[in-house]
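Chain and backbone:
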Amino acid sequence: MAWVTILILAVMFVVLFKTTVPPDVVFLSAVTMMFITGAVDTTTALSGFSSASVVTVAALFVVIAGLYQTGVLKWVVAHVLGEPKSYVSALLRVIFPAALMSSVMTDSTVCALFIKVVKMWAKKIGIAASKLLIPMSYATLVGGTLTLLGTAPNLIVAGLYFDNTGKAMNIFTITPPALVCLLAYVVAIIVLRRLLPVRKSPDENFESTNEYTAELLVPTLNSDVGKTVGEAGLDSVKGGHLIEIVRFDKEVISPVSPDEFILGGDRLVFAGDLEQIQELKKTHLFVATDHHVFSYDDIDEQGRKLLTGTLKYNSEINGKRMSDTDFESRHGLVLVAVSRDGERIDDSPRNIVLASGDTLLMEYSSKMSESVMMEQLKDDFVMHESEAPIETSKRTYVSIAILVGMILLSSFKVLSVVQSAMLAAFASVLFRCCTPKQAQKSIHWDIVMIFACSVVFGKAIQENGIAEAIANGVASVCGGSVLLTMILVSIVALTVTEFVSNTAAAAIFFPIVYQLATNLGVDPKGFCLMLALCVSMSFATPIGSPVNTLVYGPGGYRFSDFLKIGIPMNIVMLFTIVTTIYLMYIV
């Protein structure tokens, strides 16, 4: 069954690399195929779903939700940014709090909240936000490795290590080598700071423009009255598209169907090239209204809301025109404007071929809450939250106490890791650090699923002799040299994580790395920690990590910006990780 397992894993890897299918779906499908083909038996196929490590991961997400909901991040930000005297000082004031917060919260959570703060702060101190956002996103990646809580790969590697050895890593096991990586990163980003570009944020285009739409009034005796939007040829006009109709009774119709009838007194709101849209006053004999239906500032008064988000590379509308999909009607929103590489595209938004990294301005009904809309769009966009970071309160200190208590209980062996994590999750809800609903939503079920499936993969790779065969092959290529093996494994892990999620990379490579260490006669812990560090250092592409995608749009970056700064940074981190792990755990 070894070749069947290899074939399934190879197909899985290709699907992860070449398609936009969610990793958790790919992983579960691979486990299903292994089970059906007999590559794993029933016990092995279900082992991941009964693993204590998987339960621990789910519980830790609830603890992290408590820290977030009680405003721990806001407290840190409020006390450390201040007034820097130089650009280097500004860098340090952003990097250290972002890194430290990422050690106990998911990096994407910290990055998402820091973006708005950093952009406002950068404007205040007169520094381009693009000079700070990439360093901040990188800091959350490195900072996430400081503890087992910070990032999913750490949790997965620690869980798989426990499943293979029976020895539990404590929350600070990875801290010593990760601290060295953080210091190396700080020095490197300061030295390489001139490679950071000065870009204009696409949000600045949206924020500095009061009007996104052209509004035209349909006279009562107009010839289009009584026709449908399609019959009047208004569903697709030169330079733009109809995004809503405002009736005389203030009813707002959006999205607008081609079958919607036009009535006298209707105000038609178009988005796109405003100059070309004004030609409709001549061709259809419409007239100008006394004011626009909405602007960025008064949108809520008109019963509509605006939302911005950066398109993900695996979005269903990536590479498509919005007009060719039913995306708007399904989600109850309308595309208003598109910004790319820091510049707003002056064309009909619905006719633009969308690309990952584009920032989209969308309009939706005020009857729907922003949180609900963001939840709907999370698979396709990295959303730019408009809410301010949550204010601190007494519960802020309660959530910190719960975290410290969990660490102490597990570190001093009073309770097992899974017991202390479950107790901390229960306490977070009990003491109202987060509500039961917030706790439920905080659990990243996709990561939990990947983790559960990775346990199955690890057993399949080991039981079928694949890990040993690959380990022997690598050892043969490297001549049995531990150092050369470490370099080769690190290069492969650093490369793969730029194109595949770090969680998936950690799960795929763990059994091979563990077997390599065993065959070489060294402590597997060092190799496992090396893997966890490598898969988290995704610097060279904006799609390699969610935090890079988060800053890609708001920073107005281009793909090449990440290559210029990311490749040198990867080289620095490769040298740092291999050297540090070798000296701490191998020699």
In short: Confidence is low (pLDDT under 50) at residues 207-211, 291-302. The CA atoms of residues 130 and 375 lie 27 Å apart. The first helix runs from residue 2 to 18. The domain at 303-383 is CATH 3.30.70.1450 (Alpha-Beta Plaits).
